[in-house]
Amino acid sequence: MTMRILIQLILCAYLMLPMQARAVEIIVKDPLDYSLKQYGLILGVSLLGGIAAFYTKVRKGEVDATSITAFIGEMATSALAGLLTFWFCEYLNLQPVLTAAVVGMAGHMGARGIAWAEGALRRRADRLIGGDSGR
Predict the structure, then answer these.
(1) Core-most of 4, 75, 107, 135, by most CB within 10 Å?
(2) pTM of the complete model
(3) Residues 48-61: pLDDT tens digits?
(4) Is 50 within 8 Å of 78 (Cβ atoms)?
(5) Which sign does the torsion angle of CA 33, 86, 27, 95 carry?
(6) How far is C-alpha 133 from the chain's CA centre?
(7) Distances (CA, A) of 128 to 16, 22, 119
């Protein structure tokens, strides 16, 4: 069993060599390196998606149009989903226009998008460690 793990580690290290050679070219940015203008655009697009989602819920009769708490909750989850999506798109080096479109969709999805990402990450982690998270 330990020999199998050793072989897997060696194989992983070997497969990562091309990534290490390219690592010099990659500029690492942290969340504080982006401008306020860029964050304003991202939050604006994700909040527009949240407004569209709130309007859809009002039209379906799921939420009262005068419910301030539902509106604020929708805006907060839309902003969080949009911001997380922006950082993920930046990690993947997607084009800015595509990033803006994906951020708008994530803002519209709001809590559903966050729950979907959580489920996808949980399934991925379960496959990697070979366990079951109880779901």
Answers:
(1) 107
(2) 0.69
(3) 999 999 999 999 99
(4) yes
(5) negative
(6) 21
(7) 17, 25, 14
